[in-house]
């Protein structure tokens, strides 16, 4: 096995790696991290959410992306959000940069990263109006909604107003078919 020095990748090196790799990697501080697979309930929750968001996004001229689209936060930081909504022009053929809504489905292996690292980074995005965290083991979650004073943390109620797209979502619809 050939040794390779560990060093931060440039944006170009990372995009080339992702174009050739059968695995997806998030890039944090220039270091690529392979992503784990998701459970069936995780995938179903993402699918339900995309189906519910699509008509609202379409009505506003926005796009809904799920799981395989990169979000560039900085030259050395890219994530693959579970779901994101973008209402402006496409930033690049391989990634987006200005979502108005980002959603992560929590799992035991990603919850700490989603609640700390990603929360801190996502809330710095000027375009972001909401960051939604959904429980995969249980039913519920947290919405960080942008206000004039900054982001406020709201536990999800049975029905909740959606930032960015308007409208309301219900937990019953989100969790339909999820164990």
TrEMBL record:
GO molecular function, one term: endonuclease activity
Family matches, as InterPro entries: Nuclease_put_TT1808, Restrct_endonuc-II-like, Uma2
Superkingdom of origin: Bacteria
Pfam families referenced in this protein's UniProt entry, alphabetically: Uma2
Entry keyword annotation includes Transcription: no
Keyword tags: Endonuclease, Hydrolase, Nuclease
Boundaries of every Putative restriction endonuclease domain copy: 12-151
Coiled coil: none
PANTHER family: GLR1098 PROTEIN, RESTRICTION ENDONUCLEASE DOMAIN-CONTAINING PROTEIN-RELATED
Record-given protein name: Uma2 family endonuclease
């Amino acid at each position: 096995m050939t040794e390779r020095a560990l060093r931060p990748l440039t944006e170009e090196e990372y995009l080339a790696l992702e174009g050739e790799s059968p695995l997806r990697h998030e890039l944090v501080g220039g270091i690529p991290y392979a992503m784990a697979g998701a459970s069936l309930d995780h995938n179903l929750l993402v699918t339900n959410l995309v189906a519910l968001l699509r008509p609202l996004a379409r009505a506003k001229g926005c796009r809904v992306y799920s799981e395989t689209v990169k979000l560039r936060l900085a030259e050395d930081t890219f994530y693959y959000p579970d779901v994101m909504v973008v209402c402006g022009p496409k930033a690049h053929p391989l990634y987006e940069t200005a979502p108005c809504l980002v959603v992560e489905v929590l799992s035991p292996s990603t919850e700490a990263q989603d609640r700390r690292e990603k929360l801190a980074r996502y809330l710095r995005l000027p375009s972001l109006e909401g960051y939604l965290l959904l429980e995969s083991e249980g039913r519920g979650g947290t919405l960080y909604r942008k206000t004039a004073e900054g982001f406020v943390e709201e536990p999800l109620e049975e029905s909740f107003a959606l930032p960015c797209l308007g409208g309301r979502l219900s937990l019953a619809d989100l969790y339909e078919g999820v164990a």
